[in-house]
Amino acid sequence: MTVNLPTASRLLRAIVFVTGFAACAAAEGQAPLKTLLIDVDHRQTTSLDGPWHYLVDSPGVALYDAKGKVKDTTYSQNHHPVMVGERTGFEEYDFATAPTLNVPGDWNTQEPTLFRYEGVVWYEKDFDFAPKPGLRTFLHVGAANYRSYVWVNGKRICEHEGGFTPYDCEATAVLHAGGNFVVIAVDATRLADGVPSVDVDWNNYGGLTRDVSLVTVPEQFIDDYDAHLVRNTTGTIAGYVHVEGAGAGVPVTIRIAEAKISKTVTTDASGKAAFELSADGLKLWEPGSPKLYKVEMAAGKDTLTDEVGFRDIQVKGTEILLNGKPIFLRGVCVQGEAPYRTGRVSTDKDVETIFSWLTDMHANFVRMAHYPYDERMTRMADKLGIMVWSEIPLWQRIQFEPGVYVKADAMLHEMVRRDRNKASVIMWSVANETPNNLQRTDFLVKLIGEAHALDATRPVAAALNSQKIVGNTIGLNDPLANALDIVGINEYVGWYVGTPALADTLTWNVPQKPLIMSEFGGEGKAGNHGEKERRWTEESQLDIYQHQFVMLAKIPQLRGTAPWILMDFRSPVRNIPKLQDGFNRKGLISNDGQKKLAFEFVKKEYAAGFGKAE
After folding, report:
1. Same domain, 208 and 285
2. Which of 105, 386, 562, 596: disulfide with 381, CB 3.0–4.6 Å?
3. What are phi and psi of 451, to 5 degrees?
4. How many Å apart are CA 269 and CA 298, to the nearest integer?
5. pLDDT value at 7 more than 90
6. How many domains are there within the chain?
7. Edge-to-edge strands of the sheet including 236-244?
8. 461 and 583, same domain (yes or no)
9. Domain limits at 227?
10. Are 122 and 73 in contact (CB under 8 A)?
């Protein structure tokens, strides 16, 4: 694996950017989130999912003042206003009688009048709680798109920017026995300096799109850990457990009963306890045999249990090695959109349906494109042995400025922290289809270095699209490829470039690194049949794929394929009547579950072992 920046330089830059984030947050009146819990779905929690009352703040005047600063309004402080005595304001609302939206879920697909709405919505929920001495309670939000601000019992406790990663707000000091209420204002306004920016090719679903819960832990608790197979070994596990609130000398026990491992180590001054464990006969995680071990951690009064697979993933030359053996990634791209209904993936049934399609097409790999997905997705990939490409939403028209870097860096940290211990996640991706210029390259090279510093056990990738055809040779002209461990290329020969048959004649001139064709394909509407020369038919889409696979088979360093895309999905820029109707139709499966001719073709190629390697 190539590391592009010296360790000292990375460390210094990390300090600068973390300090910058804290300063930026303080300037906005936001306390940086000091705690980000992992493995929440394996803790005992109090779910706040279900109906939440909501109010639409169309111009955002209840949330922001004239200068755009967040204000503490009656919306957040008085959830059921009663007009008695002297009037102190012009409150014309009542959460108690307001309509409801289901959480998790976006507002766009639950309320017809909000289908195209991208602004501020206030959510409110009443709940009972019984505090106990010596315990701390956090409000955990799986994701809220895009910016969110949280009040509990009228006190603002945190805010967060980023629509696809989790955050935690400590609520211990503001909760009391009996009835409590939480108010979350969510602003889905697209921002020029946001991540992603204002122009996206998927629906900007707003709201509390993933689970919300209360997590109660001891005063000293495990908030983070890492357990991974040491490279080039078959039975050595290393990592750390971090105990929030602890200093030096706190005992931490790590136990993997099935592997006959139990060891106690102690924390250092930062609360981190490093460990190295040896196991005989450890069964490694891989597709076809996705072994997961129950890992138990205990520190003082806190215990945490997870299911972890142990495997090694690395790059050597043009090969991707899983547990020391070359592997070919037969996969497909997905969007985080729910099948059979529109909206974000948020239920077990959504995930089960998507993965049933993946296994049906004999896929061993999935590119979770453009942004981190619901944790149910990576859990299921762990369970079924599907390898994952996981990405932050640096997509096309990003402003590559220092302030945007801070946001991207925060999202990278949150993605890595949540899914570090998922064996299925075999690479981190830092970008998709970004413009080829010096400012972009410097920005992303720094971020690649940060990804390596955060997690030295996985390669780093990005999806590039700076190709140029000269004669019958197609080459990649992007210096970012030099900084990547795995090069992804998005190409649409036969759809956006040339005819499908052009692919047969092309020779690829690309860097001597593992190459994943991270997007390719074309649009075809399910049920629209006709000649292959007529675009938008299933036959036309099939023709593109047939020629693509001829071309792909001739690329020596090709190590994976991920057609775009598994299922048709909503997009505000896809509006050809009767053909798109607001959907990107490049799916191998329609949004209502119809498998197109191209699906059956890819399934056949994968079943026959396209790409070999294993």
Report:
1. no
2. 386
3. -60, -40
4. 18
5. no
6. 3
7. 221-229, 236-244, 272-278
8. yes
9. 221-311
10. no
